[in-house]
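Narrative of accomplishments. A recurring question from our advisory board has been how the design workflow behaves on a single, concrete structure rather than in aggregate. To address it, we present the structure tokens for one chain from the evaluation set, followed by the sequence designed for it. No filtering or post-editing was applied between the two.
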């Protein structure tokens, strides 16, 4: 059930053209690619979620990067944020290798699924409210399709708010609204949400988010997924 439902969502995501501004931007980013990617044929389409259909943990990000997921066709793949994230996922047993460079590179996620609030690269990493709302149903459906899911790790405020909205659409609400913060925990319906700073260069280069901090977050996610308090 989970695998078939996720595959249907993936097909719909890849074919989506609901947001004209993002369609134009993702194609333009591929046309004006930097010299270091001159030999790449960009994906330049919406980027679906990926991972283990039996996952108990889901990571929610903001959106693909213009020269990351928009180039490679897999979210968090081929950019500095992804380099940081997948190294941590490997260290905590959620990935079979510490790197993610392109589709077909051998990466497998273990007990974990990765998605995002928006599936197209937005200008300035800032989707509009309407673009968020257009895309959010895909995350809502992924959450419902992941039948064993227990823990949601939201990378940043935008992902936290988006995940809460997606859960609310599935009938799971928390009142008052839980506040985001690194290390925040909130029970929302049958799920536990964990807040984690986004592994953007702005956060990792300044030390706002360290490798040790993120490793601790995913170790906590595993504890919760396994029913250990």
């Amino acid at each position: 059930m989970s695998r078939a439902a996720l595959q249907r969502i993936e097909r719909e995501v890849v074919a989506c053209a609901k947001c004209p501004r993002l369609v134009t931007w993702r194609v333009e980013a591929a046309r004006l690619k930097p010299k270091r990617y001159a030999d790449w044929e960009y994906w330049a389409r919406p980027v679906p979620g990926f991972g283990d259909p039996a996952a108990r943990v889901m990571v929610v990000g903001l959106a693909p990067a213009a020269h990351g997921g928009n180039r490679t066709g897999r979210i968090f793949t081929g950019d500095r944020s992804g380099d940081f994230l997948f190294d941590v996922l490997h260290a905590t047993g959620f990935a079979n290798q510490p790197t993610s460079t392109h589709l077909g590179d051998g990466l497998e996620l273990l007990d974990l699924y990765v998605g995002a609030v928006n599936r197209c690269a937005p200008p300035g990493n800032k989707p509009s409210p309407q673009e968020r709302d257009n895309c959010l149903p895909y995350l809502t459906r992924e959450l419902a399709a992941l039948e064993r899911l227990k823990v949601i790790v939201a990378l940043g405020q935008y992902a936290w708010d988006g995940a809460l909205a997606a859960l609310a659409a599935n009938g799971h609400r928390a009142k008052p609204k839980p506040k985001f913060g690194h290390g925040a925990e909130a029970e929302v319906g049958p799920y536990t949400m964990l807040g984690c700073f986004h592994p953007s260069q702005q956060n990792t280069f300044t030390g706002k988010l360290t490798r040790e901090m993120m490793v601790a977050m995913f170790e906590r996610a595993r504890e919760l997924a396994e029913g250990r308090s």
